[in-house]
Amino acid sequence: MCGRYVATRSPEDLVQLFQVTDWRAEERLEPSWNVAPTDQVYGVLERRPRHDDDGEVRRQLRALRWGLVPSWADDLKIGARLINARVETVHEKPAFRRAFVKRRCLLPADGFYEWRRIDDPATGGKRKQPYFIHAEDDEVMALAGLYEYWRNPDVERDDDPAASIRACRSPSPPTTTTPGSTPPTRTPTGCASC
After folding, report:
1. Residues assigned a catalytic role
2. In the 8-state DSSP scheme, what is residue 103?
3. Beta bridge partners of 125
4. How far apart are CA 23 and CA 117, in angstroms?
5. Which residue in 193, 146, 189, 192 sits closest to 5, CA to CA?
6. pLDDT tens digits, residue range 22-44?
7. What is the distance between the alpha carbons of residues 66 and 29, in angstroms, rounded to a whole number?
8. What is 4-193's CATH superfamily?
9. What SS3 class is residue 19?
10. Parallel, antiparallel, or unpaired for β 164-172 and 191-193?
11. Whole-prediction pTM value?
12. How far apart are CA 190 and CA 161, in angstroms?
């Protein structure tokens, strides 16, 4: 199951590559070769501007917090556990089904890590060996994602920056149990601050 990924591209590159029309310079993120759950990541999403139901849908590049926090969750901490979703059940699970229907996004990545348990001759036990999965031509990967809005019940004022967050995650391909097959991959998911 994927628990780390790499995101090093500049927002200017991502704006051009994904034909983004709305990006906030104050949401600039530093490159990371080890993105972990709850870290800030970029997400590409399409939506109308807030409080403008008649406005034009815009493609946005937004800073997201990796780890989905469902709108009904009581606590932000659940997002650290909700970083991956199974593609075969994402439409059924209560934590994901609303976002699956209404709020999809892309998570740009240079690649992600998968770990495989292997024999360790030095100890006689097992150890985890990381493998970096990336595009053959080293171009940006666009991981499928879902995002959700979460309202912090501990913050009273809606205009407070801590009042709400936007959360997202990525569905994973189906698993396989065929002996000798390639280990199933799990793509990362995230959650964003508004």
Report:
1. 2, 114
2. -
3. 120
4. 41
5. 189
6. 998 888 999 999 998 888 899 99
7. 13
8. SOS response associated peptidase-like (3.90.1680.10)
9. coil
10. antiparallel
11. 0.76
12. 18
